[in-house]
Amino acid sequence: MIGVIHCTRTAAKDRWNTKDTILNPQSAISPSQVLQLMDELTALIARACNEIAAISPATVVQRLKPDQSPVTAADEASEATILRGLARILPNVPIVSEESITARMPADLAGSFVVVDPLDGTREFLAGRDEFTVNLAIVTHGVPIAGIVAAPKRERVWRGVPGHGAERLRLQAQGVSEGQRIRTRPWPRTQPVVAVSRSHMDAATDAFVNALGQVSRVAGGSAIKFCQVAEGSADVYPRLATTCEWDVAAGQALVSAAGGIVTTPQGTPLRYGRASENFRVPGFVAWGDPAKVRAGR
Fold first, then answer.
1. How many C-beta neighbours within 10 Å does residue 85 have?
2. What is the b/e burial string over 279-291, where b = at least 16 CB atoms within 10 angstroms of the residue's CB?
3. Is the pLDDT of residue 193 over 60?
4. Which residues is 195 bridged to in the sheet?
5. Could you give the count of Cα atoms lying within 13 Å of 24 in the half-sphere of its Cβ?
6. Are 174 and 204 members of one domain?
7. Is the predicted pLDDT of residue 173 greater than 90, yes or no?
8. Three-class SS string for 129-174?
9. pLDDT, tens only, 42-95
10. Domain tally for the chain?
11. Is residue 42 domain-shared with residue 157, that is, in the same domain?
């Protein structure tokens, strides 16, 4: 079982702390304010990971949602834990969460809101693989300003605030290890590594990868592919098929915090809070080296 993070004072945590400010939930959340919340939000995500770990994928009952994607009691238990915690940590801040968005549409997303995927990679969870994650992002004025991605079976959590860096931690029974700073890497001269989706590969993405030349493909599930780009074990993660904001927002914040960039396939910025589009993202590319984008690939 993954333990809840204990908020003991360490050098790693000092990197995330700033002087106290009053967070007004009615106004936009700034990066300096969210820095103060990172430990508490990380502990909340760890509790959600515990909820998932308590449910066996071999015996859990799954059902199909209208879009034919699976959902289980693990998704729902994780979401319930996160929503309860956010009601305490960020009262009155709107929440866009995958499993409840159809039942509870936030009224106003013009300022700040939270984006949650309580179990990203349900297919991987059901298959017994370790590539599912719990994702949380804070978005202000349409841009992710903080992201947390946790992989329960890998006992890892990645978190970042653009402009303030990113780090990887190990989830342990007694809490969390000291964070290790992570950064993206420059585009390699030979054999760049491309992270691709195991479950959602499509012809357009395949063509995009082929156009990059001689590369190494690494297939995987969930937002872990963003984490690979952020920590420099992969160089690019393209997905040109449609996905949802809760699949992308936390990963974008993490990659950006680690020195990379996430754009549309055309190289333009992604925007979040698009309720009129059913929170759909038509495609994206996560680059570890922004110079590769500026050079036109």
1. 18
2. bebebbbbbbbee
3. yes
4. 218
5. 4
6. no
7. no
8. CCCCEEEEEEEECCEEEEEEEEEHHHCEEEEEECCCEEEEEEEECC
9. 999 999 999 999 999 999 999 888 878 889 999 999 999 999 999 999 999 999
10. 2
11. yes
* Contact between 192 and 235 (Cβ < 8 Å): yes
Give residue 105's pLDDT.
Answer: 65
Q: Specify the CATH number for the domain of residue 111.
A: 3.30.540.10
Q: Same domain, yes or no, for 73 and 177?
A: yes
Parent domain of 213: 193-294
3-class DSSP assignment, residue 36: helix
Contact yes or no for 257/163 (Cβ under 8 A):
yes
Q: Which residues pair with 194 in a beta bridge?
A: 217, 236
Report how far residue 222's alpha carbon sits from residue 155's, in angstroms, rounded to the nearest whole number.
15
By three-state DSSP, how is residue 1 classified? coil
Could you tell me if 141 and 44 lie in one domain?
Answer: yes
Tokens at residue 131, please? 């590539």
Q: Are residues 119 and 243 in the same domain?
A: no
Q: Cα-Cα-Cα-Cα dihedral of 157, 161, 166, 170, to 10°?
A: -20
Integer Cα distance of 145 and 199 in angstroms: 28
Residue of 236, 243, 235 lying closest to 202 (CA atoms): 243
Count H helices and E strands in the chain, helices first. Answer: 8, 17
> Do 115 and 245 have their domain in common?
no
Kindly state whether residue 227 falls inside one of the protein's structural domains.
Answer: yes
31 conformational bin, left if phi > 0, alpha if psi -120 to 50, beta if neither: alpha
- Judged against a pLDDT cut of 50, whether residue 22 lies above it is answered with no
Whether 160 is covered by a domain: the verdict is yes
Let me know if residue 83 belongs to a domain: yes
Residue 270 is which amino acid?
Answer: L
